[in-house]
Amino acid sequence: MDVTPLIRADSKIIQSYKGGVFKVSNEIYERSIIVMVDRVIEWAPSTPPQLLDFAVLEPFKDRIHVFLFGTGDKQFMLSPALRQQIKNTYGFVVDTMDNGAACRTYNVLMAEGRLVAVGLLR
Fold first, then answer.
1. What distance, in Å, lies between the first and last C-alpha atoms of the chain?
2. Any idea what the Cα angle at residue 117 is, between residues 87 and 25, rounded to 5°?
3. How many C-beta atoms lie closer than 10 Å to residue 65's C-beta?
4. Where are the alpha helices (DSSP H) in 1-122?
5. What's the pLDDT tens digit per position in 44-101?
6. Choosing a second label site near 69 at 20 to 30 A (CA), which of 26, 46, 47, 95?
7. Mean predicted confidence (pLDDT) in 96-113
8. CB atoms within 10 A of CB 47
9. At residue 2, does pLDDT exceed 50?
10. DSSP H helix total and E strand total for the chain
């Protein structure tokens, strides 16, 4: 039985990442990015991230249920207060993980047709 997921040809899939360089659908990005099923947005969030860093997603908030936040090589957590502000303001849940887990999780959820986006820190 073939269990290969059917992915639309125009979907953005993360092919690789290493040392802050991301390959998404045959394009190379050497900056922090947000990946959605149909687009890649270059992103420069604050350190530490703030509510306004997520404003770039305002036009797409109805197309995102889960935002995966890839924090680089090591995971750090967003404060519960910021996560709640993001949910209240933009309507999606933020799940924080390192870049490897974020890339893998995004690819699986996107292939399942879920409303997902991922932000990856360089």
1. 38
2. 170
3. 14
4. 80-90, 99-111
5. 999 999 999 999 999 999 999 999 999 998 889 999 999 999 999 999 999 999 999 9
6. 26
7. 96
8. 8
9. no
10. 2, 8
